[in-house]
Amino acid sequence: MKNQEKRKERIEKVKKFTAKNRLFILLAVVCCFYLLGTTIFGKDPEPPTQETVQTETVQQQEPEQWRFYWIDVWVLAVGGGFCTVMMIREKRKAKEDIK
Predict the structure, then answer these.
(1) Which residues contact 82 (CB under 8 A, 6 or more apart)?
(2) From CA 35, how far away is CA 41, in angstroms rounded?
(3) What is the dihedral of CA 46, 47, 51, 56, to 10 degrees?
(4) Are 70 and 31 within 8 A, CB to CB?
(5) What is the per-residue pLDDT for 14?
(6) pLDDT at 22
(7) Rounded distance, CA 54 to CA 60, Å?
(8) What is the DSSP string of 62-75?
(9) How far, in Å, are 71, 78, 80, 93 from residue 87 at the CA level?
């Protein structure tokens, strides 16, 4: 009996969350499909050639440097946007509580 009540409460909480955050959920689903698609349908690795072996040995000798990946921009933009939206909501709630 209690398990069913807790389950119904959880379902209601999830429904309320999804109703409030539809844009975030849509972006999360699109990102998941993109990551799955690139993982499944990604290019097959090429067999190593003499040239790639030489470049790998040179890279191992040099100190590692920070590399830029475009997915970093997407992660920062989505995460930053979500955090900004949540902070604005909390600020509005705080103002309403004061009034």
Answers:
(1) 24
(2) 10
(3) 90
(4) no
(5) 85
(6) 86
(7) 10
(8) SPP-----HHHHHH
(9) 24, 14, 10, 10
27 token code pair: 């972006």
Token pair 């990551």 is found at: 35
10 Å CB burial of residue 35 (0-12, 13-18, 19+) is exposed
Q: Is 43 exposed, middle or buried (0-12, 13-18, 19+ CB in 10 A)?
A: exposed
CA 79 to mean position of chain CA atoms: 7
| pTM given for the model | 0.36
Q: How confident is the model at residue 56 (pLDDT cuts 50, 70, 90)?
A: low
Rounded average pLDDT over 7-29: 87
Would you say 29 and 76 are in contact if contact means Cβ atoms under 8 Å apart?
no
Burial code of 71-95, b = ≥16 C-beta within 10 A, e = fewer?
A: eeeeeeeeeeeeeeeeeeeeeeeee
